[in-house]
Model the fold of this input.
Amino acid sequence: MPQAKPKDIFKRITSSLTETYPERECVAIAKNYLADRFHIDSIKLAINSPMAIDESLLTHDLRQLANGTPYQHVVGFTIFYGRNFICNQHALIPRPETEELVDLIIKENDIEAPSILDIGTGTGCIPICLKAEIQDADCVGMDISGQALELAKNNAYKNNIDINFRKGDILSEGLPSNQYDIIVSNPPYIPNADRSIMHTNVLDHEPDIALFVEDNDPLVFYRTIAEKALTSLRPKGKLYFEIHENYSSQVLDLMDKLGYADICIKKDLQGKDRMISAQLK
Done:
């Protein structure tokens, strides 16, 4: 196996990605890639001693990255709330904003052994992390995509977490009555009109069904879930959403008209309206 100096590999990675990503992102990808693929951390990079490198793997990966394949798909995983999650084209890549949503639920929960439903579970990152962090939580993950559910099941197994996953379409199916203490969802919320301003590595590699809603009804998932949660939540149960920053006031008004109490919008670390919570009266 050929050897190369880490700094030379680093330069090769960044130079190959300059036409695809901004400079800062190229640097971040290069550092993460060296650590994830070849176990070259910042210390080894600084020392810069020659190391054995799988040249065919490096060439293959750089070609994929340069073509816009998401980094998480190239290496096959991402770290979310301190846990390793398999990633592929069948579900959204877990993002830092959703980590903030998970953290909010964990910190606010004061129920012993809560029953939790995640609608649109994707990789399963939300229920898996909630189950891991909240003692005796009973978590269910629901998704319309069978392929996403297979991915979620693999992630639960990988993390040694027992989750009940089930296939379902929240827009056409009901929810059991008086069943859950917490319902959470990061539903599709990007209007189709926003496609033109999105990066191709998202458009070409992540499922449309998990991203987009029709321009004439962008709140369809929020409205449907909030309506069905009225009877599915237990008394004083809580509803959590990740939201589109441009629709925070509309989602708040919707939940207020449905009769929810203690409605609260939370900003993400970028200062954007990103989460909303409410309680059943």
Observations:
- The mean pLDDT is 96.
